[in-house]
Every structure is written in structure tokens, then in C-alpha cells.
Task: structure prediction
Amino acid sequence: MSHRSSVTGFPSPVFRLLSLVFFLHAFFSFAQVKSTVDSTSIKIGAQITYHIQVETDSTNLVVFPEGQTFSPLEMIDSYDVDTLKNKDKFNLIKKYGLTQFDSGKYTIPRQKILIGDKTFFTDSVQVEVHNVVVDTTKGLYDIKPIIAVEKSSSNWWQYVLITLLILGLVGFLLYWFIWRQKPLTEEEKIALLPPYDRAKLALKALDESQYLEHENLKDYYSDLTFIIRKYLDEKVYDRALESTTDELINHLNLLKEGNQVDLSLDDIKKIESILKRADLVKFAKSAPDIELAKLDRNTIDVEIDQVKEALPEPTEEEKLLDEKYRLEQERKKQRKKVWLTVGISVFLLLATLTGFSLKYGFGYVKDTIFGHDSKELLEGEWVTSQYGIPPITISTPQVLKRTTPELPAEMAQNMKITQFSYGSLLQKFQITVATTKLINQGQGQGQEQSEHKIDIQQVLDSSLKNFESTGAQNIITKKEKFVTPNGAEGMKVFGSMDLPIPNTEHFEKGKYVMLGFASENVVQQIIIFHDDDDVYAEQMVERILNSVELKEAEK
Result:
């Protein structure tokens, strides 16, 4: 049986009905899209949650809207997609957080969803934004001033502790090896004894030697004559050690004749006899009897006593001179310790500075010691925050303060600007984050805004003219594509310029970096300026650029 009419040649009504049923079944089995909002009436700044629900097969790729596609409402958050499985289909739910900071009636425009190779649109939604009611009967309060928050560093105490430990170690070593009162050795104890006591101890030490047992008369007589010469050198004649035997004996006779030493001629002859015998032993290899050597030792012992008794008692003036001499020696010893401590400290300081300079560079070490504004900013505690709507996430060395300029009434009808900044051109370091929203003229608040095709290059060129208005010259410009860590694409303009030094005719070179991002009716800019030879500012710029994040506008 044929399904076509024999008169017209068109498909029969039954065939058309089956075809329509088959088409509708195929369409609705492909996907279903619904959109809802949790509220159609909010207060200024409150959030609306916008839902898009898609039911589709598991084989289809679904692309939800991204960027500021909800204008005149502003998207402040985009949530992850929730996925629910229902038999052989998937139910995908995408949520957006929207808000508006001006009162009025607004229309959320239709949103485009790509499902496979098909395009679907949601319905537009009307919402109303109300002003916050202020109870004026309770009085109004002034805006609270900005409170400076003291930044705290979590690891500053580690550097202080390490520094104190190093200084403590150096101080301990200086004390231990230089200033500490060390226990005296036997030699030092003997050296502190009076000359007479030292001479007696030296004779006892000679008795304990084994010179005579080994018939070592040369060393025996050398030590014996040194004992008597040393005692005479300290108490009678200060050149006794270096004088010959004849010179020493002649000087003793002169002292006796001058009544300076009450020493008998017999004592002088005994000393002379022993000294000449010792000369023969040392230089002529004479070998006297061992018993004679012992007798000479006893004679020297007696003569030391005789010399002591022959010396006059020191006067008070001599005692004062001796005390003065002793104090002077103590002062010399202290000065020696001071100079030694200063020398070692300076050496360690120079060695430390040299080591750090070789590793980090002399400029870094110098700036660490004497301070540098940019270095302190770089190494301080940075702040990560969001600025403007839609928000720009950025890390900066200081919190950016709102510096939104007042626009003329005519311009204010066409655009809305929010701006945050830190520093200035005069401070040789400046960061500015600005968001400009274009407003269509001649439209009501509840009407949808038409799309503006924004040329980001023209916007950045306009920003460069602001530098020229401040007197900048020789502006060198380079351009390249810029992609944020989260994938948002924009344009980067950077280069150098000569800025005038205030109250002079001279210029100094500076560098700048400008980032520009454009979406529907919104321009977002980041402008950074710094001194040309500021290496720390270069590192700050790199760190700032690597921290920039924003939602990539829908193409």
C-alpha cells in the first residue's frame, strides 16, 4: 500500500505524523537545558545563585558559559559542575554567583550552552535589586579611618637566633683564648718569683740533672754560670748576660769601689774563678774533677746569698718605680689583648663580608647592611588579594589602596572605574590595578547592554599617553601576548622611558609593564613602574606578573 496521495504526490498525513514524532523524540533524547535563580529580588551587593541544568548523553561534550556573560549583573564566582547519573543519561548542574551594586530592575541575558555540535540558549530572567534601608533615627557614623596592620614575620626570630649564636661563639672563643685567666704553668710560676728565689730553684734543678753522672761538664758549667749571671743581670748589672768574664768582673769591682755594692774582694775573686773555669770547659775542652764541679756549685750558692746581702735596701722611690713599671706592664698586656681582639673581630667581619659578597654580590650585601627600600619590599610579607569587579587576583608587597579618580559627569555616564594603587612615580615604584566598565547610553537599568568591541591596544596606548602627560620622553614600547597562570589571555606592553627629576632639568630612566584584558564591556589593567637600575624591583615585577589571575572572558 502506498503512503503517498495519488492526487497531490505529497506524503500522507500518517507519514507526516510519524516523522514529527520521530523528530521530537530525537531532539529531546539529545539534551534538555533548564535555567533557574534562587531569588529574583535581592539587596544591593547580595548574591544570586544562577543554575544551569543540562540532561544529555554521556558521549556529548558540554561547554558552559565563562566570563562576564551575565551583564548587567556581575559574576563573582563560578562553581564546579555537579554531575548526577540517571540511567543512561547524565544530569549536569552548573552554578554561578551573581550580584549588582546599583539598585533597579535588570535582565539576566540568555546564556549560550554548547552540547556536542549543537547550540542551546537559556531563558532570560528578570531580577530586582533594592536599596538597603537606612534607619536615620538612630544616627549615622563617620567612616572609620584606615588602620595600619603591623605585618608579622614568622621566621624573623630564626635569623636573630642564628646571629646571636654566631656572636656568642665568637665571643666565647675570644674569651677562652685571649681574655681568660689561664692557670699558670710551672715556668710561668717560676718567672713570677723574685730573682733570688728563681736562682735557688735553678740550682736545685741543676742538682736533679744527670750532667755529672754522664760527665757532661760543658752543659753543667753552662747552666751553673747562667744562673749566677742571670741573678747579677737582674739585681746588679743589667748587661751581665752578654758581658765577657773580664768585663763582668771589672764592673763588679767598679761597683764595689763606688760603694754601690757591699761585696768583698774575696767574693768577687771566687765568682771570677768559677766563671773562668767554666770558660775553659766550654771553649778549651778542659775537664775538671767532678768533685770540683760540685764544689763550684756550692760556691755559687753561697755567692748568691752574699750578693743578696750586699745589695742595699730599695728606697721608697725605687719601690714606686717598680710598682709603676709593674702597672705599665699590665697595661701593655691589656692593650695587647684589646688590639688582638679588635684585629680578630675585623678579620672575621671582613672574611664574612667577602664570603657573602662572592656568593650573593657586593650590592646585595651592602643593601642588606645599610638598607634598601625595594629590597625591604621584596623580602617583606606579601599580600594576595582581589581588586575590582570582576576581581583581579594579584600578589603585591603592600596592600593596594583605593584611588578611584572622580570622572566628569559626561564620562561617568559612559563608564565606571575602580582603581587601586601603591606608590607613585616620584617614589620610583608604582603598582596600579584598574577595572573600567563601559555603560551604554540611552538605556534603562532593566535593559540588556549591547556588546562593545573593545580594542585593548587602544586602551594601553591611552595609558602610555598618561606617562607623556607627566613629562616622560623617549618611551620605548614592546608588545607581546600575555597568558595568566589560569589561562586568561591579554596583552603585555613593556619598555623604558625617561622621566623628569622634579625641580631639575635632568631625566632618569625608568621601566614600565602594562597588562590589559578585555571582555564584554569590561577592561582590566595592571600598570607597574620602577627605576631602571633597581634589581629588586625587577624581581618584584616578575613575582607580581606570575601571581595575576582572572577569569578568561568568553570569546
Observations:
- The chain has 14 helices and 20 strands.
